[in-house]
Design brief:
- The structure is a single chain.
- With 271 residues, this protein is α/β, with parallel strands linked by helices.
- It contains 11 helices and 10 strands.
- It has helices at 44-52, 74-80, 97-105, 112-115, 120-140, 156-168, 186-201, 213-219, 237-241, 244-251, 261-266; strands spanning 6-15, 18-28, 33-37, 59-64, 67-68, 82-84, 174-178, 205-209, 222-227, 230-235.
- The strands form 2 sheets. The protein has a 6-stranded mixed β-sheet with strand order 6-7-8-3-9-10, sandwiched between helices. Strands 2-1-4-5 form a 4-stranded antiparallel β-sheet, with helices on one face.
- The chain binds adenosine-5'-diphosphate (ADP) and magnesium ion.
- The site of adenosine-5'-diphosphate (ADP) has 11 residues, from strand 2 and helix 1.
């Protein structure tokens, strides 16, 4: 595939006097894994809020598949194929894993006014098809044996996986993952890495915000670095690990000398 999945041009978000995202330019190629990194408060989650439509841009343009979606509603963006997870999982404790994923599938099932046009039989068939789809997604994220488990009884790591399954249920072509590996144990982290790689192989574009630099550097084909809302670097993991502005932002040292091998290792680049 060629072209661009997501394109941000001069994207800006102000909160009063604070510029959380400042004139951000970024291009995500289809079927690639793109990292968005930066210190706490750099504007990463706000960038996701802007792309997913949770918050409105103060300036700039967001294009998805070449279409300007800057002013589109959250629902329109989901319908266009954008989905996300949140830095703090937003799940209903009383729902089972299966029910949770089925809520993500529901936009494919007629409801409200349209539903009244369908017979009870066709609604039951649609519901059964949704359940099969949800179970397939649970299997993909390794939660098939937890299908009937209430969210309240799932471990933190499993909740994160469940959030991914629910996001995938909307049938996206772009997945935004906000710190999806934080708080996971090493086995779970490797599982998420493999899962994300598999999704990209299937053609999904993935943008991930992550603090675990080793995770980012090993997984992403391209990385964009934010600091105080502004982009300070954009490139391959190797380029990012050798970038003086990045090392300064992460290690808090003036740009006196070129990045040493040790610096590169310290920000997670191991190649
Ligand atoms: P990151 O995800 O990189 O840690 P955020 O995008 O959450 O950073 O935050 C970027 C900056 O914007 C921070 O200074 C934060 O306090 C501020 N901010 C984020 N959301 C809001 C909001 N709704 N109102 C005011 N300030 C906000
Ligand atoms: Mg954040």
């Amino acid at each position: 595939m060629s072209g661009v999945s997501l394109e941000l041009c001069g994207l800006t978000r102000r909160f009063g006097g604070l510029v959380a995202v400042r004139e951000l330019d970024m291009r995500v190629a289809p079927g690639t894994i793109h990292g968005l990194i930066g210190p706490n408060g750099a504007g990463k989650s706000t960038a996701f809020d802007l792309v997913s439509g949770v918050t409105a841009a103060s300036a700039g343009v967001i294009r998805f598949g070449g279409v300007d979606i800057t002013r589109a509603s959250v629902e329109a963006r989901v319908a266009a194929g954008i989905c996300r997870t949140f830095q703090t999982p937003r799940l209903f404790e009383a729902m089972t894993a299966l029910e949770t994923v089925m809520t993500g599938c529901h936009r494919h099932v007629p409801y409200g006014f349209l539903a009244s046009v369908f017979s009870a039989g066709s609604k039951a068939r649609a519901e059964a098809a949704t359940e099969v789809q949800a179970l397939t997604l649970l299997e993909r994220v390794g939660l098939d044996r937890d299908a009937r488990t209430p969210v309240a009884r799932l471990s933190y790591g499993r909740r994160r996986l469940l959030e991914i399954a629910r996001a995938l249920a909307t049938g996206p072509s772009l997945l935004l993952l906000d710190e999806v590996a934080s708080g996971l144990n090493p086995v779970e982290t490797t599982f998420v890495s493999d899962l994300v790689r598999g999704l990209a192989r299937d053609g999904l574009s993935v943008v991930l915000v992550e603090h675990d630099m080793r995770f980012v550097m090993n997984l992403c084909e391209r990385v964009t670095v934010l600091n105080f809302g502004a982009r300070i670097a954009d490139g391959t993991p190797a380029e990012i690990a050798a970038d003086e502005a990045v090392i300064e932002a992460y290690l808090g040292r003036p740009r006196a000398q070129a990045a040493s091998r040790r610096d590169r290792r310290r920000i997670g680049y191991t190649a």
